[in-house]
Each structure stands twice: as C-alpha cells, then as structure tokens.
C-alpha cells in the first residue's frame, strides 16, 4: 500500500480507468469471470489454469475478487516498464 505513494495521481487515475473498464458489472471489484475476459484481451494465449493461478496471486485477501488496491499492486508489478 505504501507503493501507492510513489505513483503519480494521473497514473493512478489511468489505472483506475483500466480497472473500471474491466469491471464490466461495475460492482467495484473484478471477479474471476471479468479477470478471464481481461486476460483474454491482454494475452489470448494464456491457459485457463494460468489465469486462475494468476487470479489467486492478485487476490491477496482471497475473497474471490480483485479490488482496486489489489489491482493497483498487480499493475505496478507487471506493468512497471510502462
Ligand atoms: Ca465486477
Ligand atoms: Ca480480493
């Protein structure tokens, strides 16, 4: 969470936009189904087993969905170069 402070507000807003885009039912979290859709777009060749594994890694509190904080953390790790 401390990592968030290193991000520029406009960067956070940008990530927020991505998050909202993938949160297709707008409930403020990305569920497994939404996550699969996301991954299918980002990397179509990803195997279903990998997707679920990835989901488990991002869903740090294991409540079955990715909230914005978890998404942000993941985004910073995987998209650092961008
Ligand atoms: Ca959702
Ligand atoms: Ca979660």
From TrEMBL:
GO terms for molecular function: calcium ion binding. Signal peptide: none annotated. Pfam families: EF-hand_7. Residues 10-45, 46-81 form the EF-hand domain. Coiled coil: none annotated. It comes from the Bacteria. InterPro entries: EF-hand-dom_pair, EF_Hand_1_Ca_BS, EF_hand_dom. This is EF-hand domain-containing protein. It comes from Paraglaciecola polaris LMG 21857. The lineage of its organism: Bacteria, Pseudomonadati, Pseudomonadota, Gammaproteobacteria, Alteromonadales.
